[in-house]
Amino acid sequence: MSKNTLENITEEFVIKSLEHIGKELDKPKTIFPFVTPSMRKELNTGIKGVIVGKAGVGKTSLLLTLPEESTLFVNIEAGEVAVQGWNGTSYKPHTWEDCRNFAALLGGPDESLKSDQPYSREHYKAMVSRFGDPEQFNQFETIFIDSITEASRLSFRWASRQPECITAKGLLDNRAVYGLHGKEMMNWLMHLQKIPNKNIWFVGILEDKLDDLNKPYFSLQMEGQKAGLELPGIVDEMITMYDIYSQDSKQGYKAFICHSMNPYGLPAKDRTGKLDMVEPPHLGKLMDKIRNTDIAKIKKNYELPL
C-alpha cells in the first residue's frame, strides 16, 4: 500500500469520525431524572409506621381514630371485638399467600424481580386477573394492618412447609426455615413500604425480655429476629403506645412515645422531627401533625448542651 493511499484512508477515517461526533453532539440531550423541590412537594409518599405496645394497651382501638370511609382494616389477628362500633371496610387474610397477594395487588409490580418471584409483574398480573382492577383501592388513604406479629406467624408456618426447608432425611431444617421466613417478611415489608399515596401502619405486640445479664429490655414480638431488628430502619415512624403513671399517683394515662431518647427505654423513632416525645394516643391527629409542612415547626437541635 502506497504512502498516499494510506494517508487518504487515514484522512477519510478522521472525517467520518468527526462527522459521527458531530451527529452525536447534535442529538437532543436527555435530562437526568432529578426530583426538584417543587416536584417533591407535590409527591404524596404516604406515612409508613409501626405502633407497638403491650397486649391489651389498646392498639387495635386506634382504628376508631381514623376516618371510616378512607381506611382499610387488614384484620390478620381477628381483633375486631375491640372495634365493634367501627363501620369501615376490612380484609381478613388467612394464609401467608393471602398476605403476599394483597401486597402485590396493592403495591403493583416490582420490575426488578424475575417472573417467578413474588411481587413480580407476572404475580401482579395474576392478582389483577383474579381480583380485578387495583383502582378499587383508590378509595383508601390509610391501610391499618393488625398485626405484624400474627403476619410473622403465618410466614413462619408457610416457610416450615417449603421443600427447601426439609432435609434429605425428611427432617425440618430450622436454620433454613428461619432464613426463608426472614427473607419473606423483609420482602413483604419492603414492598408495602414503597407504595405511594398510602399511609401504611403496622401494629405489633411489645414484650418485656431479659438479656444475658438479666437486664430488662423491650422487643417486638415476632417469629425470628431479622424482620424485627430491621423494621425500625424501614418505616418512617416507630411509636410505642404506653401506660404512663406519675410517681405520686396510681392513676395513669395512655400515650404515644415517639422519640428514641425517652426515660422509659421504649423503642421509638420519629423521622420527621415534628413529633414531641409524648403525644396523645390519636393516630388521626398524629398523621395530621406529621403532614404539617411548616418547616419552622420541625424541632431538631444540633447544638451540644453546655
Describe this structure in words.
The chain has 306 residues and is an alpha/beta fold. It has a single domain, classed as Rossmann fold. It is built from 8 helices and 10 strands. Strands 1, 2, 3, 4, 5, 6, 7, 8, 9 and 10 form a 10-stranded mixed beta sheet that branches. The longest helix has 24 residues, at 3-26. The protein is globular, with a radius of gyration of 26 Å. It starts with a helix and ends in a 15-residue tail after the last helix.
Poorly predicted parts: none
**Tally of DSSP β-strands:** 10
What CATH calls the topology is Rossmann fold
Mean pLDDT: 87
In terms of quaternary structure, what is this?
Answer: single chain
Topology order in helix (H) and strand (E) letters: HHEEEHHEHHEEHEEEEH
